[in-house]
Write a structure and sequence with these properties.
Layout (H helix, E strand, L loop, with lengths): L19 E14 L2 E14 L3 E5 L6 H8 L7 E6 L2 E2 L7 E4 L11 H12 L4 H13 L15 H13 L5 E5 L7 H18 L2 E5 L3 H7 L2 E6 L4 E7 L15 H17 L3
Parallel strand pairs: 3-8, 3-9, 6-7, 7-8
Antiparallel strand pairs: 1-2, 1-4, 4-5, 9-10
Helix pairs in contact: 2-3, 2-4, 3-4, 6-7
Length: 273
């Protein structure tokens, strides 16, 4: 994509004591099914600071997606507390934008009208916000495609539309659930770089879920490692790469390779427990 390290600049060093924007306390989630109860989350507690990029990793079924849905107000918890900027979460929050693995674009709406959809739902489809939508379309590299329909776009382009749509109402927090998991490796790398660029420019707080340890180490300031049965946090792993280092060259750096091994071994340690 020809992105320069300068485009990724975002000061993270020395930002200890940043404002807490997400606080989760003693979260429990039990799903009731026809076959009985599933204890999905047990005593999950963590905080996320303003502007922080935090990624959740762990085996399938450890509750990563469940955490994001509860934080986003899309799923009820069984017990515990969730606060966004100090306010107790009971329902979906305007402060939050969500990006799923599938962009779920409406096929009868153009790219631009798909991006505008949250503004229409929120009743804020003003000329100023419409300009913001066009600016975001340019930001994600889709200027000139505003009148195209989803079936005229590649998978990577559709996911870029999903990113623009999640940002259009200017949320301060982004929840990203395996957003690039269905894409080929090259497109995934490109969109990882795109997310780093947007994170650096827009100063968003990002909570990210992935099954890829490599992706987690490349993107994150902090990785929350989980185990399953029930889903619990076992480790907070700090990732100390600067924004300037987070280019594709980092993928062959011995320090990056060492950190990915450490995180993968940690997941493996708890995989069967």
């Amino acid at each position: 994509m020809g992105l320069q390290a300068a485009s990724l600049k975002k000061e993270v060093e020395g930002e200890k004591n940043r404002e807490t924007v997400v606080e989760v306390k003693h979260l429990e989630k039990i799903f009731t099914t026809l076959r009985g109860s599933i204890h999905a989350l047990h005593d999950v507690s963590f905080t996320v600071s303003k502007g922080e990029f935090v990624t959740f990793v762990g085996p399938s079924g450890c509750g990563k997606t469940t955490i994001l849905r509860i934080v986003g107000g899309m799923l009820d918890k069984t017990d515990g507390e969730v606060f966004i900027k100090g306010k107790y979460v009971k329902e979906s929050q305007k402060e939050i934008g969500v990006i799923f693995q599938s962009p779920n674009l409406l096929p009868w709406r153009t790219l631009l009208k798909n991006v505008l959809l949250p503004l229409e739902v929120l009743g804020i489809n003003t000329p100023e916000n419409q300009k913001r939508a066009r600016d975001l379309i340019e930001l994600v590299g889709l200027a000139g495609f505003e009148d195209k329909y989803p079936n005229e776009l590649s998978g990577g382009m559709q996911q870029r539309v999903g990113i623009a749509r999640a940002l259009v109402h200017n949320p301060s927090i982004l929840l990203m659930d395996e957003p690039f998991g269905a894409l080929d490796a090259i497109t995934r790398e490109q969109l990882d770089m795109e997310i780093l660029r947007i994170w650096g420019q827009a100063k968003k707080t990002i909570m990210f879920v992935t099954h890829s340890v490599e992706e987690a180490v490349f993107l994150s300031e902090r990785i929350i490692v989980m185990r399953t049965k029930p889903g619990e946090i076992v480790k907070n792993e700090i990732i100390e790469f600067s924004m300037e280092e987070r280019t594709l060259n980092l993928l062959t750096d011995p320090r990056y390779l060492k950190k990915t091994r450490e995180v993968r071994n940690l997941i493996g340690k708890y995989y069967q427990m």
